[in-house]
Amino acid sequence: MIISMRQLARAALFILSVCSAEAALAQNRRNPPPPPAAYSSDELVNSGHRFFGNVTRGLALTIEEATRRWGQPNGYILGQEGGAAFVGGLRYGEGVLYTRNAGDRRIFWQGPSFGFDFGGQGARTMMLVYNMPSTDALFQRFGGVDGSAYFVGGFGMTALVADQMVVVPISSGVGARLGVNVGYLKFTPSSTWNPF
């Protein structure tokens, strides 16, 4: 069997292209894309002011407290949620996740709660997202950190954690709900009635 120079050159080019592609993949595995860039407190307050309306002072105090505790977030969610509880409770919400370099994305959340908790509420919610490596990493369950809730200037703030990420929901709404509970929020890319 005689191999022509043209066939030999094609084979060499094929081998070279396969090796180059493998080297590029190995480089990408060693150097994953950077996480979304962080937002400053002023940017968050301005965005929250447009979303919540004329409640800037309370929002500014709440965001200041969150950034003091956890630093600058690399994403945030603006949305609405509703929930009700009678010992066990449910919470559903939807909004948009904003990031600097990964774009904006529609997002939904839901979750159960259990404890001494009674009532119902509807709220506009801003969620600060910390240490998010990618937008897809948000699609999981986030449990409460020490069950802590803080009230600053008429806004409620809770911290939820999963892996290395922290989500801090800040809400202001209407309704009456009283009690202490434990639970989690599950983020999903599409709407679902299943809170588990």
Quickly list its features.
196 residues; alpha+beta; Lipocalin; 2 domains; 5-stranded antiparallel sheet; 3 helices; globular; EipA-like; DUF1134 domain-containing protein; signal
Describe the structure.
There is one protein chain. Strands 1, 2, 3, 4 and 5 form a five-stranded antiparallel beta sheet that branches. Helix 2 (41-52) packs antiparallel against helix 3 (56-70). By secondary structure, the chain is an alpha+beta fold. The mean pLDDT is 76. The protein has helices spanning 5-30, 41-52, 56-70, and strands at residues 75-98, 105-130, 141-152, 155-162, 165-188. It is built from three helices and five strands; from the N terminus they run H-H-H-E-E-E-E-E. The chain has two domains: 1-31; 41-188, Rhodococcus equi virulence-associated protein (Lipocalin), CATH 2.40.128. Helices cover 27% and strands 48% of the residues.
Provide the fold topology.
Blueprint lengths: L4 H26 L10 H12 L3 H15 L4 E24 L6 E26 L10 E12 L2 E8 L2 E24 L8
Antiparallel strand pairs: 1-2, 2-5, 3-4, 3-5, 4-5
Helix pairs in contact: 2-3
Structure, briefly:
Helices cover 27% and strands 48% of the residues. It has helices at 5-30, 41-52, 56-70; strands at 75-98, 105-130, 141-152, 155-162, 165-188.
